[in-house]
Amino acid sequence: MVNRFAFAPDSFSGNKVPAPFSPARWPAGVALALLAVLLGLLGLRPGPAVALTVAPTGPTEIVSTGHNHTCALTPAGAVECWGQNEFGQAGTHAGPYTQVSAGNVHTCALTPAGTVECWGANEFDQAGTHAGPYSQVSAGAFHTCALTPAGTVECWGWNDAGQAGTHAGPYTQVSAGGYHTCALTPAGALECWGFDNDGQAGIHDGPYTQVSGGNFHTCALTPGGAVECWSTKDQIDTHDGPYSQVSAGANYSCALTPVGAVECWGNNDFGQAGNHAGPYTQVSASGGHTCALTPAGAVECWGDNDLSQAGNHAGPYGPYVPETNITNAPPPLTNGNDPTFEFDSPDTAATFDCRLNGGAWQPCNSPHDYTNLADGAHTFEVRAVSPPGNPDTTPAAHTWTIDTVAPSVVINQAAGQTDPTAAGPIHFTVVFSEAVSGFVGDDVTFSGTAGATTAVVTPISAAVYNVAVSDMTGDGTVIATVAAAVARDAAGNDNTASTSTDNSVTYDTSVTFALYMPIALTVSGGRDRPR
Fold it and tell me: Please, which residues bridge with residue 342 across strands?
C-alpha cells in the first residue's frame, strides 16, 4: 500500500514540501488534492497522513492498501479495487495475476508469466507494463520496483533521490516505500536506497525475514518475530511481538500476531492504528486506513473511509490458484497397465504436481507415464502450481480400473440334454468367467463323427450362453469347443480356449426315446434351475 499524495524532501533544508509536480501535466483534480493536503499540514484540515506500498509477505500479497484505494486478489487471479478511482487506479482487472500492490495513485500486479502490469496515474512513468520476468512487484509513492528471478531489483518512476535505481543484489524481497526502497538479502540483511532524511534507508545487518517500507520509516521482522523500525519521526517504535508479518504505513505500523490478531501503533487520527482481534492472515497499512484478510477470504478495513476505501468486502480473496485440466487419460476400464496422462492449465506459466493413489505429490510434466501398474482401481491426481508456489486446491482427478486377466470359458453339454439322443438340436452350455461380448454361433468349433455344422447361440446372461447344434450328417459324436480370442471382456481382454468335463454328446437316430427335456431341480435356497 502507498500514500495517496506524498511529499518529497527538500534536499537543501530537509523540510517536507510538495513534490514538484508540473500543473500543466497533471489533471486539475490532482492540484486541488495537493492543495487540500498542504492545508491539512498547515493545520487547516486534519488530512490523512501519507503511506506507501509494502510487500508484507513477498509475492503472496493478497490485500494491498493505497492511500485512498484498496485492492485485493481473488483466487481466480483477478484484481478487485475500491475507493478513489480518479486516475483509474481502482476498478477490476481480470488478470490473471499472482500478486497485487497498490501505490499512491497507481496499482501494479504481477502476471503468472512474470510481467508487471500497472494502471492509474503515470506522470513519472511509475505505471505501464514491464515484461520482466519478475517474481515480485512493490508499488511505492510514485515509483515501482520489481524483483527478478535472479534477485536483481529493477525500479522505474520518480527517481529524484535515487529510490528508483536498479540494484544487482541478489535480493529475496523488495519493498518500495514513499521515497526510498528496501530489499532483503539472502542472508537476511536489509539494504535500502533513496531518500534517507529521517533515517528510513541505509543498511541494517539483521537478520530479518521480511521488510516493509513506510512513507518515512521502515520496519523489518526478525526471525524471532520482533518488529524493528527506524526513523527519526515520532511514533516509530520497536515491538517484541512475536509477530508473523509487519506492514509500515504513513506514521504508523501494524503487525500480525501468530494467532491472527492485528496490533498497530503510531498515528491514529482516523482509527487506522487500532488493535483488532481477527483472526486475520495478512494486514496492509496505508495512510489513513488499514485492511486485513480473514481466513475465510473477506477483507475487513478500518480508518478513514471518506472515499469508501475502508469498506468491508466479502470476497472471497486469497492466493491465486490456477485451474488444472486432464486432457487425455485411460478409459474407466482398461487392460493396459502402462497408462499415459496429458494435462494442462489456462495458466501457461504454471508447473504441475502429480500423485497416484493418494501418494506424495511429485513434480511432473505432461505427458506423464506410469508403467506396469497392478490390476485393480487406481486414482491419478494432478494440480497446477502458480509461479509463487500456490497449488490448485481442487486438483483434477481420474479414477480407472486395470484388468489384464483374460476371461476363461467352460463348455459342457447342457443340463437336461439326453445322451445319447436321436433328436436335434443338441444343447451345450458355455460359461465365461465374466461378462463378454462378441460371442456368436460361428465361434463354436465342432469335432466328432456326427458331422454337425450349425450352432445357434442364445445368451442366458452376459457370461452364460446356450448353444444349439444341428444339421448332423450322420450318427456319431458331437464334440463342441470354443476357440481362444472369439469373445472379449469389457476391459478388452480376449478369452482363453475353452475347457470342459463333458462336451461330447452321442447322436444316434436308432434311439427312439432320446429327447432334450430340461427338468427342474430344487437346489439350496429354494431356486429351480434346468438340469
Answer: 328
- Helix (H, G, I), strand (E, B), or coil: what is residue 399? strand
| Cα–Cα distance for residue pair 438/33, rounded to 1 Å | 83
Contact 281, 294 (CB under 8 A): yes
Q: Are 250 and 288 contacting, i.e. CB atoms less than 8 angstroms apart?
A: yes
Measured CA to CA, the distance from residue 337 to residue 252 in angstroms comes to 63
Closest CA to 208 of 220, 192, 193: 220
Task: Specify whether the CB–CB gap between 505 and 477 falls below 8 A.
Answer: yes
347 DSSP 8-state letter: -
Strands (E) located in 324-450: 325-328, 333-334, 340-344, 351-356, 362-364, 368-369, 376-385, 396-402, 409-413, 426-432, 444-447
User: For the whole model, what pTM was predicted?
Assistant: 0.69
The parts of the chain modelled with pLDDT lower than 50 are 1-59, 513-516, 519-531
The helix/strand/coil state of 336 is coil
| H helical segments located in 287-341 | none
Contact 53, 64 (CB under 8 A): yes
- Cα separation of 70 and 61, whole Å? 12
What pLDDT score was predicted for residue 224?
94
